[in-house]
Recover the amino acids of this structure.
């Protein structure tokens, strides 16, 4: 798989990095704002890709990232030709959204590798978590954007908001949809 780092978008960079890491035995899940970008075909631009590692025992991550031209700078991996995006690994399993740790990511096959991403429903929950816990109005807007373009499980989102003791967020989400 080839990529033009100077022109790539979040989807292209996710597919390239995740499939490379998977070939190296490193399982990842794309989370955060880049998922919104993937599900909205670039209508939203995140600026970074957040990967959750599929195991706390990930070995060789920095070497694998170096092999495709990324250099670690603090918490971020930066490619010298990719001026608009960087990669971050903020955590490892278990993957959770708020108090929910029963997240099952969607899978895609890219370059003969199975790579993972939050489902549209879990992406909406993740963005609502940003709205709820960080008072980030943009999180609500992103949740609405994804829900307007993909089938989502409204019952699951309501259940999640109720379990987080934040039922008001589901009402606000529905009102803005």
């Amino acid at each position: 798989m080839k990529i033009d780092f100077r022109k790539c978008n979040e989807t292209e960079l996710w597919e390239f990095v995740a499939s490379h890491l998977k070939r190296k035995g490193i399982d990842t899940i794309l989370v955060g704002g880049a998922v919104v970008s993937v599900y909205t075909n670039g209508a939203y631009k995140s600026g970074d890709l957040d990967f959750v590692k599929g195991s706390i025992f990930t070995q060789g991550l920095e070497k694998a990232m170096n092999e495709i031209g990324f250099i670690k700078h603090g918490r971020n991996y930066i490619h010298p030709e990719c001026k608009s995006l960087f990669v971050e690994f903020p955590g490892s399993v278990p993957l959770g959204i708020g108090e929910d740790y029963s997240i099952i990511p969607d899978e895609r096959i890219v370059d003969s590798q199975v790579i993972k991403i939050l489902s549209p429903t879990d992406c909406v929950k993740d963005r609502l978590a940003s709205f709820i816990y960080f008072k980030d109005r943009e999180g609500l807007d992103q949740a609405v954007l994804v829900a307007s373009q993909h089938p989502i499980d409204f019952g699951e989102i309501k259940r999640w908001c109720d379990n987080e003791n934040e039922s008001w967020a589901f009402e606000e989400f529905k009102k803005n949809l």
